[in-house]
Specification:
This protein is an alpha/beta fold. The protein contains 9 helices and 8 strands. It has a single domain, classed as P-loop containing nucleotide triphosphate hydrolases (Rossmann fold), CATH 3.40.50.300. It has a 5-stranded parallel sheet with strand order 2-6-1-7-8. It has a 3-stranded antiparallel sheet with strand order 3-4-5. A hairpin with a 2-residue loop joins strand 3 and strand 4. The chain starts with 6 loop residues before the first strand and ends with a helix.
């Protein structure tokens, strides 16, 4: 594996397994993993706590500008902790409601600029794998390794449903699939920093891959990219 600082951009749609894969790759490479989705979820949570309409772009941008959604990220034993206004929100941001709201607020230019700036500042300090929707195109366009992880909507819905069914007893696979498809449309059609594969990113379809096979594939992409430019 490379000895110089490593920056890896991992993009893809909701339910593609980016966060879990990034965690595993980070452990293998002994680097940090930044989950940018958690940061958008934190802003969404702040809006919901204040009973704001997440469809009101001006209200969400004002929320960030006025410092009422202060998002901070720290790492403990290589694990990310996400804080909102001084409170750890790692559990609170994982609900289906917060996820849906995050997909909406992530469309707003002011929200994105606020969080992208934080993400880029974190990446300047250390080796890191960052996952999200616009990492290779906006946050880390200079990253040597860019991977676009995807899978069929049905497979992504199954994976997402497995994550939430114990926490949200009312959830159904059909509803998860419909919401996932709606979030795909939002992410791909938003005017600001839409979800798309960077021109120099490697596409990785994990539909028919096990988790371990997917991790191995990403590690191989990393090694080959750094070997070419050594």
């Amino acid at each position: 594996m490379p000895t110089q600082p490593i920056l890896i951009a991992l993009d893809g749609p909701v339910g593609a397994g980016k966060s879990s894969l990034a965690d595993a790759v980070a452990k293998e490479l002994n680097i940090l993993h930044l989950d940018t989705g958690a940061m958008y979820r934190a802003v969404a949570l702040a809006a919901l706590q204040l009973d704001l309409d997440v469809r009101d772009e001006q209200a969400l941008e004002t929320l960030c500008l006025q410092g009422r959604a202060q998002v901070e990220v720290c790492f403990s034993e290589h694990r990310q902790n996400t804080w909102l206004n001084g409170i750890n929100v790692d559990e609170a941001i994982r609900s289906q409601a917060v996820g849906s709201a995050a997909s909406t607020v992530s469309r707003y230019r002011g929200v994105r600029r606020y969080l992208v700036s934080l993400q880029q500042e974190l990446a300047r300090r250390q080796s890191m794998i960052i996952d999200g929707r616009d990492i290779g195109t906006v946050v880390l366009p200079q990253a040597r390794v860019k991977v676009f992880v995807t899978a069929s909507p049905e497979m992504r819905a199954q994976r997402r449903f497995a994550q939430i069914k114990h926490k949200e007893p009312g959830a159904t696979l059909d509803n998860v699939l419909k919401e996932l498809q709606a979030r795909d449309r939002q992410d791909q059609e938003r005017l600001v920093d839409p979800l798309r594969k960077a021109d120099d990113a490697v596409m990785l379809d994990t539909t028919n891959l096990s988790f371990e096979e997917s991790v191995t594939a990403i590690l191989r992409i990393v090694e080959e990219a750094y070997a070419k430019q050594a």
